[in-house]
């Protein structure tokens, strides 16, 4: 669509603004200044606030770096953590005064210096003086998660906000913490697969074989690989590691000093790297890292931010957008994409203060927040300003080309889809070009080693204005079955993986703010909504041996000590005792009945939620989850004319480090 005037998403003001130090003392409560070219300024002060007794006795947290930063919650749009001279957690995007976070004296941290933070469930995990602490913002409690001899410097996690499905929700379970700066062969890394509540040291044998200075480790879910950032001299590159496989490498890029990294939401692999005089972007999880060019009017004036002579003061990114404030009050805005990444200078009339930080509140709406300490109150007040970038780009004469498309929509946008074994997945999108324009759509996936696709595009009628409508059909399949990739390129089909899929326009440009590229998440592996069940033609409820109400009421039964083997080898155990088992009626329903001493072959059905999909024709092996062995097979392997020894539970459990029924999975097939 062409640029139109839209109100800003910020609740109190219509346009974004920035703040000058000299003005703060002149602002009165609820007074708005509107003589700045781009914005209005609103001072937020919601009255006197008081600390609790526990907060009064705590040590006040502060950010370890000189320039403030705002950490937005990846899934809760109104929550953010301001990190500066104090740490201020907001649940309304800084629309009320806030008492800074204190850590209780009982933890004896004294100088509570915070060098990193992430969100995890209802907690914020913070690196305080090199150790990991958790603050639960729902009940206000604190806990220690990890104390080590290594001084931890970095913490990393990714998030999925598309679905409550396990493939999505489990992404944030994985957390990495580590110290950077030493040889990679000596790197100490801790990993948690439980939202940070249990850490263990990560063992990656490949790290011992790498050379260079360790600058960070990340798990990129959109590639299903660990990414290790290594620096040798003034050159850096990523090494990508899959357990039990050789590493692969990204392209080298110049890195004369340590870079900060920002992983943008959406799991597309969009990474921003920066320090004061450098600004780089990668659209593929660091495989290719390039400088972001700077534009003024229609032309590229600098191929990199370093050549502009500016220094970065604050930076913020959204899914496909970037905003930068410089130390000399300049404001830059940019768009991110495969072939359309650039920054443009918006104005030179944007003063900032030492207490200002920047964030995106929503698409096209940048917010600059300045924290102001109340002299008579423990709380901090705020000067909040919003820039509606669509309005700004329309008003300023900076020579932007109009957006080439009127409509770009995909039925997969902000959703998660599951691609099960041997299946294909059909997605659809709509494209309507502007009159006399010919936009070129491009489909990309973040993990081509696992996900293959085919695209068909065709004319599909006209709009009321006479513009041609196009339908884009996208067929997804596992790369293993696509027939289009070499074996060395394909990921192991037995290991579940993830990939994002994005539909973008080549040279989309900044004028397409309200035409963001649709993007979705594809889970390649087991569909957690599917399950197999044993068909029950006759149940204990049908014969009135048991009643459903009886089974629902904590029904138990006993397995006699001579009838089971907890080691699953079908052998009597001297130390066994009678087992009392709680029957799971919700999961199992009424118990099935079979006739004693009569051959019985289970009929296995595949169900997806409440829908029966098919009768399973595959071969299978039975196991009783408690080790019960009061049944036998009617044939041996030889009598069944098997050409090779069948897999069995005893040999699988003996060979696995995981004991019990979880020892056998798809990787053993």
Sheet of most strands: 6 strands, mixed
The structural class is mainly beta
Strand content: 35-45%
Count of β-strands: 47
State the share of residues found in helices, binned by percent: under 10%
Which whole number gives the mean pLDDT? 85
Oligomer: single chain
- pLDDT below 50 for ≥5 consecutive residues: which ranges? 1-36
Shape: globular
Physical arrangement of strands within the biggest beta sheet: 27-26-31-30-29-28
Any idea how many domains? Answer: 4
Specify the CATH homologous superfamily of the largest domain. YVTN repeat-like/Quinoprotein amine dehydrogenase
Reported CATH architecture of the largest domain: 7 Propeller
Radius of gyration: 29 Å
Head-to-tail CA distance between termini: 52 Å
User: Helix tally?
Assistant: 8
**CATH fold-level label of the largest domain:** Methylamine Dehydrogenase, Chain H
Short summary:
Helix content is 6%, strand content 37%. Pfam families: Beta-prop_CATSPERD (PF15020), CATSPERD-E_C (PF22850), Ig-like_CATSPERD (PF23747).
């Amino acid at each position: 669509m062409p640029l139109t005037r839209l109100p800003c998403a910020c609740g109190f003001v219509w346009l974004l603004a920035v703040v000058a130090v000299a003005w703060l003392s002149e602002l009165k409560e609820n007074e708005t200044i509107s003589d700045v070219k781009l914005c209005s300024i609103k001072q937020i002060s919601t009255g006197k606030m008081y600390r609790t007794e526990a907060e009064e006795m705590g040590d006040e947290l502060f950010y370890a770096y000189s320039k403030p930063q705002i950490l937005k919650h990846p899934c809760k749009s109104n929550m953010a953590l301001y990190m500066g001279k104090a740490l201020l957690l907001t649940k309304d995007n800084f629309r009320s005064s806030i008492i800074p976070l204190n850590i209780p004296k009982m933890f004896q941290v004294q100088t509570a210096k915070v060098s990193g933070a992430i969100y995890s469930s209802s907690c914020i995990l913070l690196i305080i003086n090199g150790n990991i602490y958790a603050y639960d913002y729902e009940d206000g409690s604190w806990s220690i998660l990890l104390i080590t001899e290594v001084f931890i410097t970095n913490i990393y996690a990714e998030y999925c906000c598309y679905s409550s499905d396990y493939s999505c929700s489990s992404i944030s379970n994985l957390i990495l913490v580590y110290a950077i700066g030493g040889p990679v062969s000596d790197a100490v890394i801790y990993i948690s697969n439980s939202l940070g509540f249990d850490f263990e040291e990560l063992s990656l044998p490949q790290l011992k074989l790498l050379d260079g200075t360790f600058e960070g480790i990340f798990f990129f879910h959109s590639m299903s690989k660990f990414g290790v950032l290594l620096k040798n001299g003034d050159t850096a590159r990523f090494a990508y590691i899959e357990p039990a496989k050789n590493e692969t490498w990204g392209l080298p890029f110049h890195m004369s000093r340590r870079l900060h990294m920002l992983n943008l939401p959406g799991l597309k692999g969009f990474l921003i790297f920066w320090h004061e005089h450098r600004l780089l972007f990668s659209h593929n999880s660091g495989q290719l890292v390039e400088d972001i060019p700077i534009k003024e009017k229609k032309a590229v004036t600098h191929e990199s931010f370093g050549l502009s002579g500016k220094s970065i003061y604050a930076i913020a990114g959204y899914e496909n957008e970037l905003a930068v404030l410089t130390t000399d009050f300049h404001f830059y805005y940019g768009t991110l994409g495969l072939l359309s990444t650039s920054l443009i200078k918006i104005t030179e009339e944007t003063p900032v203060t030492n207490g200002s930080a920047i964030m995106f509140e929503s698409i096209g709406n940048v917010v600059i927040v300045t924290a102001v300490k109340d002299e008579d109150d423990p709380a901090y007040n705020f000067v909040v300003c919003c820039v509606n970038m669509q309005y700004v780009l329309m008003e300023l004469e900076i020579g932007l080309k109009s957006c080439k498309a009127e409509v770009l929509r995909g039925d997969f946008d902000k959703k998660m889809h599951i691609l099960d074994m041997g299946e294909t997945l059909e997605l659809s999108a709509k494209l309507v070009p502007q009159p006399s324009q010919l936009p070129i759509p491009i489909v990309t996936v973040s993990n081509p080693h696992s996900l293959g696709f085919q695209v068909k595009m065709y004319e599909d009628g006209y709009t009321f204005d006479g513009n041609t409508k196009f339908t884009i059909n996208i067929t997804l399949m596992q790369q293993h079955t696509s027939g289009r990739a070499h074996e060395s390129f394909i990921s192991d089909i037995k290991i579940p993986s993830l990939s994002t899929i994005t539909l973008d326009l080549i040279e989309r440009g900044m004028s397409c703010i309200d035409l963001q590229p649709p993007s979705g998440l594809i889970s390649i592996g087991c569909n957690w909504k599917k399950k197999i069940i044993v068909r029950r033609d006759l149940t204990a409820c049908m014969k009135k041996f048991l009643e459903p109400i009886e089974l629902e009421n904590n029904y138990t039964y006993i397995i006699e000590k001579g009838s089971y083997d907890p080691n699953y080898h079908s052998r009597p155990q001297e130390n066994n005792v009678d087992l009392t088992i709680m029957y799971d009626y919700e999961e199992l329903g009424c118990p099935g009945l079979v006739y004693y001493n009569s051959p019985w072959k289970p009929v296995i059905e595949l169900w997806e939620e409440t829908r029966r999909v098919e009768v399973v024709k595959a071969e299978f092996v039975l196991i009783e989850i408690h080790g019960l062995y009061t049944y036998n097979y009617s044939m041996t392997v030889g009598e069944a004319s098997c050409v090779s020894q069948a897999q069995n539970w005893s040999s699988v459990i003996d060979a696995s480090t995981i004991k019990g029924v979880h020892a056998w999975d798809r990787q053993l097939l």
